Amino acid sequence: MTPAIVLRTVDYGESDRVVTLLSREEGKLSAIARGARKSKRRFGAALSLFGVGEARLSERAGAELATLESFSSARGFPGLYADVAKVAHGSYACELVRELSPPRHAEPALFDLLLGFLALLDEGEARAETLRVLELHALDAVGLRPDFDQCAVFADLPGEARQALEQAQALSLAEAQAFVLAPAVNAACRDALSKFILDHLGRPLKSVEFIAKLNHA
Fold first, then answer.
1. Element (H, E) at 190
2. Nearest partner of 199 among 161, 144, 149, judged by Cα
């Protein structure tokens, strides 16, 4: 059994699901959950986006996917599902972590970061400033810490936005709850970080458009 967070689920065939998990011990991995769309006994409601639990996996030589034998819920985030902005931010966080994580490479700091972010989102508000801190910490966790003085993406940033990013980089997620940016400053920081992430991934994150339509991004 290994602690894991559900990053994505995709229906497969008539009754199965392919699940992308972030395991604290094994990193990002994909597994097939056979009968997940029909069997409430084996998986229940735990096997959904933001689900956190203990995963039991089995693997066969030559198989492309592991098999998810069971997923026991360890905790839920009922407050997260109660607000569309929270769902948008949580979806973005899961997508960001999923795309930044190399397969089968343990990233315990990234696991703890995502779990902490989902817990804060569950209990508090969906805040743009917390997203900026999340982005910076996630990049740092996978060895992509931005250098605001050297990277061309940040060269033309207004001084206030650059200072805000430097402050955000030094904050914990808990401290980010009291971090406040003017809308124009946040927009400049958001756009610069989005460009930086896009340059590294080579493709845009699908959830960006969703949260851009809200007033909390």
1. helix 183-201
2. 144
| CB contact at 8 A, 84 and 75 | no
CA atoms within 13 Å, Cβ hemisphere of 8: 17
Highest average pLDDT, of 32-36, 62-66, 193-197, comes from 193-197
Dihedral of the CA atoms 122, 88, 51, 4 (nearest 10)?
Answer: -100
Residue 205 has pLDDT above 60, yes or no: yes
Classify residue 48 by its DSSP letter. S
Q: What is the pLDDT of residue 38?
A: 79
Token pair in block for residue 210: 């969703």
* Residue 63 structure tokens: 């198989």
Does residue 167 lie within any of the structural domains? Answer: yes
70 with 109, same domain?
Answer: no
pLDDT band at 108 (very low <50, low <70, confident <90, very high): very high
CB atoms within 10 A of CB 73: 15
Q: Which domain holds residue 104?
A: 80-212
Report yes or no on whether pTM surpasses 0.85: yes
